[in-house]
Design brief:
This protein has 341 residues and is α/β, with parallel strands linked by helices. It has helices spanning 18-25, 44-57, 75-91, 101-105, 109-116, 134-149, 169-183, 214-225, 275-288, 300-309, 323-340; strands spanning 11-15, 38-40, 62-65, 95-99, 121-126, 154-162, 190-195, 207-212, 232-235, 256-260, 264-269.
Length: 341
């Protein structure tokens, strides 16, 4: 059951890899209306795959961001975004493009015409501190006014990038005040997103570790001190906001389970990346951490883990390898929506 039923849908920031696509494809039907994924498209190959696969994987409301990790929209990226928007209009897909506020102003007539035929535009305001400066607030207002003047509704995403490790009540209150100032602009919703998952698991040699979910804790604190509007929650899940485009696929030499809990991620890392290693750490989660493990019915990801730990299931039917990416995202989305948001 939703803890914040009046708040806008949860935004998980998704990289468009195959095993993340499988996590989206297997979101529980009961949760779909509360998930508004933001798909980040990083290469021309992913652009073509999105046009081919989105309708099969996620034919629901979705945000699509073609900018690079710093938010810049190159000429090539803008051209691909426009082509995708044209496809979405023709296919009648509920796609909302994502742009930085300065790029909204200069996107051009074709963008505005296509955007008017889609549900909305999301303005992504990337800030690097626990405050939104007056200049950034003005940029957000100018972008909203420009879209409204062209008959386009808009939403606002305030993206902190990497979540701070700590903050004071005064800082949370100040950020809440800044967000409330943005909320009086004519945006239909305002989301605060950040990411706390580490850029590397190198510090976890083998065995168990935990990492704090400061992204959720920060949102919870800001939401508590800003009760005047329904602040949306979003995060980078089990991926780091520091993940750049230089490495398009993340898989280390040692397999790890990344299991979302209330205030942290439980990490179980093997000393190799074989099927036997996957089975071994799955057995540890199911048996040693039985109080944390939610069971197969909880999510597709939990089903994968339980199957791996089942001694009666033939080894050849146990899905390992990159399925650890799928299971991490799948369980994370389920946990956020079933337990927290």
């Amino acid at each position: 059951m939703a803890k914040f039923p009046a708040h806008p849908p949860y935004i998980p920031v998704i990289k468009w890899q195959g095993y993340e696509q499988r996590a989206l494809e297997n979101v529980d039907a009961a949760l779909i209306s509360r998930v508004w994924p933001c798909v980040e498209v990083r290469t021309s190959k992913q652009h073509l795959n999105l046009m081919e696969s989105l309708v099969k994987i996620w034919p629901h409301e979705v945000l699509v961001d073609y900018a690079n990790p710093s938010g810049a929209m190159t000429h090539v990226r803008l051209g691909e975004l426009l082509d995708f928007m044209q496809y979405a209009v023709q296919a009648k897909l509920p796609v909302s493009p994502v742009l930085g506020p300065s790029f909204v102003i200069g996107a051009g007539g074709r963008f505005l015409k296509l955007a008017a035929a889609l549900p909305s535009v999301a303005v992504r305001l990337r800030v690097g501190a626990l405050t939104v400066s007056g200049d950034m607030q003005q940029l957000a207002k100018d972008a909203c006014d420009h879209l409204k003047a062209n008959g386009i509704s808009s939403s606002l995403i305030v993206d902190l990038g990497v979540s701070p490790e700590e903050w004071t009540l005064a800082e949370a209150t100040r950020l809440g005040q800044d967000l409330q100032a943005l909320a009086v602009i004519d945006y239909k919703s305002v989301h605060l997103i950040s990411g706390a998952y580490p850029a590397s698991l190198a510090s976890v040699k083998t065995g168990m570790a935990t990492f704090k979910r400061n992204d959720w804790s920060l949102w919870h604190d800001v939401n508590a001190v800003a009760p005047g509007f329904n602040l949306g929650f979003g995060d980078y899940g089990t991926l780091s906001p520091e993940w750049t485009e230089e490495i398009l696929q993340r898989r280390g030499r040692r397999i790890a389970i990344r299991y979302t809990r209330d205030s942290d991620w439980l990490i179980l890392r093997a000393d190799g990346n074989t099927t036997s290693d996957s089975i071994a750490i799955s057995e540890i989660l199911v048996n040693t951490y039985a109080n944390d493990f939610k069971g197969a019915s909880y999510s597709f990801g939990d089903t994968l883990i339980e199957e791996r730990a089942d001694p009666n299931l033939p080894r050849k039917k146990k899905r390992c390898g990159h399925y650890h990416i799928t299971e991490a995202w799948s369980h994370h989305i389920a946990y956020v929506l079933k337990e927290q948001y």
